[in-house]
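$ fold --in a.seq
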Amino acid sequence: MRFHIISAFLLTFAFSANAWSATYNTRDYRNHGDWASLELYLGNERTFRAANSTSYSDTNFTVDYYPGLCDSPVFTSRVEMEERYSSTGDFGYSQADFRVDTRDIQNGLVQMEVERGDSGLYLNYVIPDKQALSRDMRNGQVLRIRITRDDSDPMFLEFSLRGSMAAMSRAASKCYEVSQGPGRFFDDSGSSSSSPENFF
């Protein structure tokens, strides 16, 4: 994608002062074609991610699953701007439309943010029906996003969905596994063949 299109968006906003991201460690990476799945962790915090980082050399699309909130994944993109920002900025919301192949269009929003010392522009997508978009992505070929502001030409993004089903399913499954905890192995109370009195 072209840097000057995004830069035109940035010029219309003022920076705010609150930092919002952290640098996570990664592990358990697996490739799924144009997508990949992996775990991000920082101390006791864990996030399970499905990501496309192949459609553009400077832009990715990620779906993050947080333990305890696995049914409400977070959709974001990071655009490499090739210059570190001197201030943290929250640029507010713009119109964003999402469509997989020729399926129904979802009208949502995108919040743009940057962080001091980071060279990325972060696009945080607000999607009305996350489950519907997730379902479409798992079964589609291309995800298309249109970002529109009144004072700028629309920006279009297209991400291949080859491998998205495997990546999203694996990330979600690991999220649910962690969310359930060790107690899940004792949920089937009818499977025990012994009762306490049999030991005496």
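$ fold --in b.seq
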Amino acid sequence: MANDLLPSPEYSPVSPEVVELVNTYIETMDIHVTASTMNLPIEEVTRMLQKEECQRYITEIFLNSGYRNRFKLGAALDRIIDKKLQELEEAEISSSKDILDILALAHKFRMDEIKALQKLEEIKNAKPKRQTNIQINAGENSDPLSKLFTRLTDVDEV
């Protein structure tokens, strides 16, 4: 696991036990080895790893490690672009297709990231939709209005 992890934009509290379990699982990538290392039954490890807080923690670790980390990926793209620009200057090549392809790819990555962040904000800010149903279980002849409605709709009396 890389030591250059950046803090997650959202703080999600995780107990030390969950951190230890998830870190062991990430290192071993095997539930059986994790269970024996942690001295826990396999069922307990499986149950804990299925919890939402564990899944969220695993996802955060995964998205912040290696080149999946958006800052590390951005820095790598910047180095590649700088290197290509330097090569173009040194070789005095008139074609800049390589650099345009790289810039287009970097732009696409950025636009995809912005769209994903906008969707996340929409989800966070969405108001829950709620419907309230009311059922009145009074008998049909319980009040004068019900009796009048019954008489008006009864075709046999007319």
